[in-house]
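Section handout 9: paired folding examples.
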Amino acid sequence: MATIIPLEQPRKHRPNAALEVLTSLVAEDVFAVNQLIVQRMESRVDVIPRLAGHIIASGGKRLRPLLTLACAALCGYRGQRHRKLAASVEFIHTATLLHDDVVDDSALRRGNPSANALFGNEASVLVGDFLFSRAFELMVEDGSIDVLRVLSHASAVISEGEVLQLMTTGDSATSEQAYLEVVRAKTAELFAAACRIGAIVTSRPASEEEALRTFGLNLGIAFQIIDDVLDYSAEQERLGKTVGDDFREGKVTLPVILAIHRGTEAERAFWKRALNEGDRRDNDFAHAQDLVNRHHALRDATLRARHYGAIARDALGMFPDSPIKQALLDIVDFTIEREF
């Protein structure tokens, strides 16, 4: 088990301020990327822009493309290549969301009906494929083999992560190590690639490219751990998705793993029935919430997230102080303190 390295104490204000500040620092680029996304969603097949537009407009934080823009600014980039690449990152992310919702049979996405609930599973999968294709078109237009290598590798690893998650779903014996392998592949790899691109387009030294990869990877791990905590602790209205989805889908996340390891034989039998056997009853989610709280699993999972957040913060140490660097450091706090 890794040593837990806590971050500074959470700030009790400004839950969205860090995201707003970072966005404001690259506002012109954000506007250009949003325009580019709208343009590249166009198709002569009417359902494609309607379905893609539905999920892209559904209130997401756009954190991954924002990280591409911000990391390029951190490296002193002055061109426009990063805009197409940020759009490519967002298309990859959106495609995975469409596929995820089909696999998970999700009815809500950020508080709105999911695309598959409105348009059907078949259309959602195919539009996800369309967005992957658009992402690769943008990479090819950029013309950098290094960019293509990083983003294509990330896309492959994400798919591996989805399959790994399927293999651990419904298995209450899943270890924390296996869970982290899923998180690194399914979520953190795209964060790492999104940040790494900032150094690539600026032709920065390998040490800076690796520092941004490390920043993004550990930020992504922290982000996913908090997502998994929120599924047991947040209110549905704030979270923007159905609370308890992970439990109902049989996903074995870090709060569950900690509760299982710390529980009694009777409690482990409950998790086995609910997760392995899929025998979930009306009051089971409330009981699951009680168990993760009783064994301090949410608190300690958040401490794990702070550990990875500290690694992310340290990775930016080689860059000179600047408003963009401070905003990226504050994004680490936002990722861990957020309530949605």
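Moving on to protein 2 of 2.
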Amino acid sequence: MNIMGLRKIWYAISLALIIPGLIAMLINVKQTGAPFNLGIDFTGGTLLSLQFDKQPSIEEMRKVTDELKLGTPVIQAAGDNQVLIRVRALEEQERNELLKKLEERAGKFKLLSEDKVGPSIGKELTRNALYALGIASVLMIIYITFRFEIRFGIAAILALLHDVLVVMGVFAILRLEVDSSFVAAILTIIGYSINDTIVIFDRIRENLAMPKKGESLEEMVNKSILQTMTRSINTVLTVIFVLVALLFLGGETLRNFVLALLIGVISGAYSSIFNASPLWVDLKSWASGRTAKARA
């Protein structure tokens, strides 16, 4: 399989995946003021802690919040019949109606605490997530440059950017809720994807140290990708099997988190194989061309 010879096609596929997502983000900003359907973690809301007399039905509680049109709530069991409910900011009437319906449908309970979560926490979460992403990217470039060379680091970061944009694009297009778990999923995807890319880069470095007569750089890189292909496919499949099981059996609370991971893992496998190494070859060729022109 001539992966390197078809790299323009792989680049085109990547752009076809990324551009619709970017357009959806711009449309969402124009319509709602935000590129995503932001959850309570970002927009603020009401946090209720309830202690039920007996084990409540989470599904029944979710039906109550749906009937009252309270957005997309986060309902979590906290042990000993205790439940945490996070919903959008409630007016006094909405809050009383919610508590009344919950008692009717899910059983008697004691209200342990009620807190208001302000949007300032969401701003801090966004800022910290961007800091984490930036610091991780810089540290990865430093590490890859130290272990390989700067062009490997740039190619790896571009491949990671591809994965992040694909996941963000899907969530923007489908208007899926984005909360703190989405941020955790993005950072997990980055860590997973870079690992697969490093394995391929390591094989390229090994083959560079043992060049074959008459073998071009593209042929050597293509050989390196194919030599690690089985490992890459086997690794991603084992992760996909687990994520698919969680997607269908993990419950509503985990669904968006697992979906983001599933999309990111598949995108990460694609970018590691079809984008990262071809980008390195193109960057190396571009640098060599500039050097040749400078010498001329």
